[in-house]
Amino acid sequence: MAGAVRKASLGDVDEIGHVHYEAHVQTYSGVFPEGVIESFPASERAKMWTRFLTANFGELWVAELEGHIVGFASTGPPREGLPVRDLELGSLYLLAAHHGSGLGQELLDVALGGRGASLWVLDDNPRAHAFYARNGFSPDGTDKIDEHFGNVREIRMVRGRPLIATVP
Questions:
Q1: Under a CB-based contact definition with an 8 Å cutoff, are residues 96 and 77 in contact?
Q2: What is the rounded CA–CA span in Å between residue 17 and residue 12?
Q3: What stretches of 58-144 show up as alpha helix (H) in DSSP?
Q4: For residue 123, how many other CB atoms are within 10 A of its CB?
Q5: What DSSP string runs through 106-126?
Q6: Considering the entire predicted model, what is its pTM?
Q7: 130-156 pLDDT per residue, tens
Q8: Could you give the CA distance from residue 70 to residue 23 in angstroms, rounded to a whole number?
Q9: Quick one: 50 exposed, middle or buried, by C-beta within 10 A (0-12, 13-18, 19+)?
Q10: What CA–CA distances, in Å, run from 36 to 21, 69, 71, 83?
Q11: Which of 108, 109, 84, 81 is closest to 161 using CA atoms?
Q12: Which residues in 29-151 belong to E strands, given as ranges?
């Protein structure tokens, strides 16, 4: 059965929280320091996504397969101090069993369309780097340390025209 991508609703937040947690376990176990993932359980993630939706912080989409959410993506205004694009892909997660299924691509296409955007990705995540590069993103030389997830290094990737043209 083919998957479908749709806008998320408040009724989806428990499943989104579960997918968010499980995707972190599947992707970042052994990368994040021990205990970091577990310190942010699915129930707390569901509360975070509830706040995201009720505050209209941005947009949230889910990928469903056979009636179950298996991935999600969020967009919103850039979270960093000096934005380089007016849109940020805040998250894109898909359960590992569905990597390579096309659902991640469908989530990205629905969430961004052809718009320019920025995103932050773990420095040591070659699969994600390749996915975003195939979709026109490239590192812009900016990095940061994410203290929330145990002082891991993230890099910013961007696509599309900058907000302000620079003079060479």
A1: no
A2: 9
A3: 103-112, 126-134
A4: 16
A5: HHHHHHHTT--EEEEEETT-H
A6: 0.92
A7: 999 999 999 999 999 988 878 899 999
A8: 9
A9: middle
A10: 11, 24, 21, 28
A11: 84
A12: 59-65, 68-76, 88-94, 117-122, 138-146
